[in-house]
Amino acid sequence: MEPEPESRLDPRYSDEGATAASWSDAVARLEQAELFWLTTVRPDGRPHVTPLLAVWQDDALYFCTGPAERKAKNLAANRNVVLTTGRNTLHEGIDLVVEGEAVRETDEPRLRRLAEAYETKYGSDWHFDVRDGAFHGEGGEGHRAVVFRVAPSTAFGFGKGVYSQTRWLFG
């Protein structure tokens, strides 16, 4: 486990009396979040945003995608991504933004732990077998998914109600 990054409150975007959110609280929210929005960059420079599922494990977010899907094609050209999660409300909760590089995960023992984490978090509809460095769902080779790891390089927490902006910087 990496040391907890320093939490810095940006007073320009925070109410008077707001406090910085702790990274441990942010991690708990990342572990519990069901839906994330992934932003990638197309080869021609246009952004691409799509919802997906992700799990937090080993100080990183992990997501999977079919190797022929747009996000996988984008990652082949540019591995920089943003994962966003939060609440679709104005006056409560916290929105989290994780910036980092998506790196393909092929280590099969880790993939097996991740497959178990997906099924535990999302239920039996999200059962994956692991082989050849990828996830495999029901339906044969057409249901192959490559897995990516995103260790945060920078993260932000946007508190609502008492408005605040916390920034976390990593290594």
Automatic annotation (TrEMBL):
Keywords, alphabetical: Oxidoreductase
Top-level division of the source organism's lineage: Bacteria
Domain Pyridoxamine 5'-phosphate oxidase N-terminal: 27-135
Protein name: Pyridoxamine 5'-phosphate oxidase family protein
Source organism: Streptomyces enissocaesilis
